[in-house]
Each structure stands twice: as structure tokens, then as C-alpha cells.
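In practice, a research group might receive sequence data for several interacting partners and want a quick structural hypothesis before committing to experiments. The following worked case mirrors that situation: the sequences arrive first, and a predicted assembly follows.
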Amino acid sequence: MKGKIQWNLNWHFCEGFSADRAAAGDLAGMEAIHLPHQVKTLTYNCFSHNDTQMLSTYAKHFTLSQEDAGKRIVVEFDGVMTYFDLYVNGALVGSHKGGYSRSRFEISSFVHPGNNHLYLMVDSRERDDIPPFGCVIDYLTFGGVYRDVNLYLLETAFLSDVLFRYHMTGAHSAQVYPEFYVDNSGSAFTGTICCQVVSRDGTPLTQFQQEVAIPEGRSSVQLDPNDVDNIRRWDPDDPNMYVVRVCLKQGDATLDTIEDDIGFRSVECRADGLFVNGRRIVVVGMDRHQSYPYIGYSIGRRAQRADADLLKQYGMNTVRTSHYMQSQYFLDRCDEIGMLVFEEIPGWQHIGDESFKQVVLQDVRSMIVTDFNHPGIFIWGVRINESLDDDDLYLRTNELAHQLDPSRSTGGVRCYKNSHLLEDVYTMNDFCHAERPGLKHFLLNQQQVTGLPYKVPYLVSEYMGHTYPTKQFDNESLRDEHARRHAEILGRNLIKPDSMGAIGWCAFDYNTHGDYGAGDKICYHGIFDMFRIPKYAAYVYRSQKDPSEEVILQPASGFSRGEKALYGIMPFLVMTNCDYIEVFMYGKSLGLFFPSDKFFGLPHPPIEVDVDVEAQWNDVWQDGKIVGYLNQKPVAEYAFLRDPHLDGFTVVQDDQEISSSEVDTARFEVSFVDQIGHVCTFYNGVLQIETQGDIELIGPKFLAPAGGRIAFWVKSVPTGKDSTATVTVKAPALPYPDQVFQLHLKKDL
Ligand code: GAL
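A structural hypothesis for the assembly, expressed as C-alpha cells:
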């Protein structure tokens, strides 16, 4: 659909809803806002899970020229939690159920030249008729218009979606037969569809065109197959993308154009593993909730992309969008960096009545039509996470998914054995390491799970999570054990012959209900905290990289003799991809230490240091260090002090330039550090953040670190102008100088 106008700016908001207000176009008492937006900003933790459950009003006043008012006008909502009614100039246009699916409404017959107004009645209560609600759920869904809203000005006939269908016929060739959804409010006609595929630098790959009969109303048109050669495939190791541009013509007049990013690859989910372009890839991944501190889901492009980059940096090749469809920006970035994606429909354990099931089916359709072209997506999750078998429903979801997309496998996540396999891949949340404490932290063999006398494509969709919640500021023994368990399961995953791989629970700590979590509305299940700061466990994954990419030397210890139960720091783990390490303590070398034999399957098992040091509890604790060696040469060093004390704070500014034409964000990470830059994990003093210029702080102005560190985001106030803002970070109770950062706001970015 051409003529897309991002419609995120200049809305109004208030709690509650009155039809009279919507009819009159009344803005009195409403707050001026921009999107994305959440109905209420929360505290980091310890809020009520009911705080965002409410009815609310979003309003937009807009003007149409005579010419624009004569067009077909479509408004598109990328995500509104959880339900909304749309009113234009007081008339009810339609409504939408489901907070994670895209919806579109044609408003042409409701508008006129001049001033118009659009009101949304948003219901962010947990309604029984909409997944994931109806019972309990272990995550918060927040509420509001939390993704983009777009406006389209269109001709009589337009292309609403392109599903770029193809199959590979060789390593560099494919047969392509794209399908288009056309919406024609005029009479039937014979048109032409022109299709062009170019590389991202604009080099043409192919182009073809075909005459097509366009009937009245909504229809789908599938082009005849075309052979394409000289393709550079999309691959996790070389994520080459193309752009497809399509136009619909009637005679010489171009009625519409549509453009999307695509990639060519083959994916097979087989009983002997996952094969991408014929090469076996063991899935190493994390489940991701899309929430952030204070503002829940309501954050835009830059932060979404950064999450994908972070997972990649820490060694993941896969992410599961648990438990719903996620932001286009996140999925786009996954494609660009070669990340595989298991996307799934919303839901959590509970299946409701037939009206609920209708929303489930709508979600399947929406997920596939919206996200079809992402090469990274390799599984459609068409079962409500961990719901009981419901063959009637899941035969329908599978059938619909296969009909919309015969090229991809379906999966359906369960947490129990012997479930009916209606999907292509048996996807299982395997928490066996918790159920059988005598056993080490391994994964079940697939046939123990499926109960089937033969092997099937099998994927572990969750492990760890609630079995070992760990806070950034927990006792070191817990943080060390958290890392060990991840290491044991990751190792088993890498050598398990009967599965496609395993995805861990989960990437980031997340806000939840009082029914779950640590009692403060947070599930501390992440290998990163909510601020996207890594825990020790994250380094288990990052240290599996080849050292030619980067050398990792991260001890799971703060080197203090009184932190663990009893005394001393032994045993402790060092997550590293060095060949071996040498440890110096009490003024001497304790010798060389090698990768531990406790962690099978890892290319770079953590090194465990566990020796009787000739020193007593009452000896003077001394400085020390760990030196990492590769090919017998020292390549990394991690020093530690007898008397580490607070010596300042460091601030890392992730983003130097952000857009002033939309609400963009910049992230800053602050660490309280000792004399040699190590984080003072248990320092909990106060930070004060001040901003100047066209930016606003997201969250509170006074912050206390959690685990010696914390991050914050600022957002641009969209002025559409170039300017420079400043962010000042102060530690008001400490003698350290304020740190001042410049942030450039650009209108064209
Ligand atoms: C799973 C569930 C996840 C999360 C996780 C915690 O059973 O699918 O959503 O609650 O447990 O470990």
C-alpha cells in the first residue's frame, strides 16, 4: 500500500471513555501524547498488576484536503492492547480483538474534506474472550496504543499485502510465484502486476510482469511461476536481503505499489535436525518477552532492534517470540543479522470458548499474512503456549497455517508428554532438570516426551526459567549456579542428536502478575535483567564464540571472601573461550586451570577453579588476577583487589544520534565501579538523571542501581528539527563529578 503516513504524532489521551466525547470530538481534559504509548507508566516493580487494566480514550484530530478526502483512506494499527472500538467523526467504524495483531480499517466513507476526528475506546482489561486471558498468565500485557499507527491514502484498487512465495531450485536459483491481496472498490478490470526484486544496494535481480483479472472487492492473485537465477541466499552466517517492489497498473496508470524486504533460503525441520540451506544448525536461543521497565511494550524501533543485536552478540542464533507476535522492527533486525525466529500466536495455557477460538484463528492468519516475508522466521507456533490438547482447535490452526504458508513448518508448544502431534514439529518446554533434582541439568530424549515409536522433528522451546530464578543482586552462589545450569543444558543441547536444538527461558527479566514472579511483579528468569544488563549466565553463551571473534574472560565471582556461605570464594567458574587460565591469589600463582569436564558438549566449557589455597580465614586477603591464554600466549587479564571500593561511576551511551521526527530513544547504562572498573555489585546508592533540550527521561529521575548497575532510556520530543540535547548523570550522595552527554537529534535519520 503506497502513500503510507506514519501517524504516531499528536494524539490525545485520557483514562475512561465516553461515547459523547467521541461523538463531539471533545479534547477537554485530555493529555497531549505521541505514540507509542502506555495507558499508565509503572514503577519498575512492586506495582499492582491491575494498574494498567482500564478503559481509556485515544483521540486524533486531522484535516483532509479535498483531494485526499476523495481517496480510499485506510488506517492501520500495529498493536493496541487489548481491544478497541474505532470511531470516526462519531460513527463506529469497527473494533478489534487482540493486542498483538495488526488491524486495518477503511474510513473513507466516514471522513470529509476539512476537520475530522478519530477516537479509540481502548480496553486494556484482561478480557476472557481474548487470548491470552481467561485464566492466569505469567506476564503483564500492559495496555494502550503501544505500536505504530499508519494512514494510507489509496486509489480505487490497492495491494494490501504481498506474500512473496518461492521455493529454491538450486543453491542460487528459485522459482517465485508471489501472491497479492487486492482490494478493489471499483468494478472488475484487467490489470498488470509488475514485480521487481533488487538487492539492498539497488542491483536488479529479476523483474517480471503479468496481466491479471482483478475482480470487485477483496481477492487474491497468485502470479505464474518465474525462474530466478544468480541469487545470493539469506543464511544465518550471511543474511543477504533483497527488496521486492510490486506495482498494480490499470492501463498506464499505476494504482498502487508495495515494497517489502525478502530473503531466499531453504529451511527443513527434520527428525535429524534443522537444516538451513542444507546445513545443519543447532538451535541455540532464548525466549523473549517484549517488555521494558516502566513503559512495558510501548517502545519503538531502536530499542526493538537493539534487543535482536544483543541476543546475537551473546551467541544466540534463534529467538522465540514468546508468547505472541512481536514488533516489525524486532523481526526486521532479526532478518538483517541472520537470527532465526520461532513466532507464535498469543496465549498462555488457557483455551476459552468458541469466540475466544475465533480470535485464535484470526491471530494465526494475522501472524502469517503480516510476517510471511521474513526469511528468519522458520516456525509458526499455532498452539497456545502450554495449553492442553484440543484437537479440534489445533487441527484448524494447523490447517489454516498450512493453507496460508505451505513452505514453513508449524510447531505448538506444550509442557507435557504424549501430547497429540498435529504440527510439523513437536515443540516442548522441557523443565525435567527441575522435576528430578537427583539428576543433573539435562534435557529429555525426544521419544520420552513424544511417546511415539519413531522420531519426529523436535525442538525444546523452553528450559531453565522458573526452575532457577536469579537476580542480578542475588548471592554469588546463586548467580554462579544459574550460570552452571545454563552451561550444562547448553552443552547437552549442542550434542543432542534427536532435536533441532533448544531455546532457553528467557532473554530478559519481565514484569508479571502477583500469581508468579518474586512477589515484586518481576520474573527474574532472564539471562539479562530488564535493563538488558547481562547476568553471569549470559556469558556462558557469549563465551562459546570462537576467540578469533572476541576473547571472553568473565569470572562468576566478585572475589570477596565473605559472600558465599562458609568462607572463601571456591569453587568459582570462569566463562571463557581461552585455552586455559592462570589464577593468582595470595601473592602467588595457584597454577593453570583448564576447561571443566563437568560440562559436556560445549566448545568452550567454563573453567572451574576449586583448590585448597594455603591460606586461612584469618590471613590477609590480597589482590589477585586471572590471566587467560590462547596458544600459550596471555591474551586477557581480569584483576581483582583486596580492597575494592567505590571509585566512581561509568556511563555508556549506546546511541549518539536519534530522530526528532518520531519518538526515538537512546539508552544509557550506568555502573558503580571500583578503582579498576569492576562493578560494585552491592552498591545501592542513588543516581539522578537530568535532561535538557528536546528529550524526556523514560522512568524516574532518581534511580537506584540493581546489582551495581542500571540503564535508562530517554526519548526524543518530536520537533522535526536538528538540535542537541544533554543528559546529565549525577550521583548526588557521592563526591564524583557529574557526567554530561550530548545527544544529537536529527530530523532526517
Ligand atoms: C513456562 C511458560 C513461560 C514462563 C516459564 C517460566 O512454563 O511457558 O511463559 O512462565 O514457564 O519458567
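Before designing any experiment, note the following. The chain has a mean pLDDT of 96. Residues 138, 323, 385-386, 415, 429, 462, 465-466, 505, 525 surround beta-D-galactopyranose (CB under 6 Å).
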